[in-house]
Specification:
By secondary structure, this protein is α/β, with parallel strands linked by helices. The protein contains 5 helices and 4 strands. A 4-stranded parallel beta sheet has the order 1-2-3-4. Helix 2 runs parallel beside helix 3. 17% of the residues are buried.
């Protein structure tokens, strides 16, 4: 599948170096994931949410990489993912999550 092929990511970076490209993957050891991302010039790590760990967060930050996760569809998952300081999330239900973000913003501003 081309979406998971690091060669495709490397080619995209050759065509447009300013592109914020990421390495999408299911699970990997934190050190290996960071090394693969750096190897192909990715600036964003996108593990499946079950592959997140504090070690991955720390290694990504130390390497200058942003961290995002997929697939986050339930509002309750957002709170559980907060410690990872995610740059972004991928969701099949963005409207539901945007409603939660709107509620949180309203609550925090009061």
């Amino acid at each position: 599948n081309d979406a998971y092929d690091p060669r495709v990511l490397a080619r995209c970076r050759e065509i447009e170096p300013a592109l914020l490209s990421g390495l999408l993957y299911l699970r990997d050891e934190p050190a290996a994931a960071v090394a693969r991302a750096l190897e192909v010039g990715a600036r964003l790590l996108l593990p499946e949410k079950g592959g997140l760990s504090l070690e991955l967060r720390d290694r990504a930050r130390a390497a200058g990489l942003k961290l995002a996760a997929w697939v986050v569809d339930e509002p309750g998952e957002l709170e559980a993912l907060a410690p990872y300081g995610l740059y972004g999330i991928a969701s099949n239900r963005p409207g539901v999550l945007l409603t939660v973000f709107g509620y949180l913003a309203m609550t925090l501003s009061q």
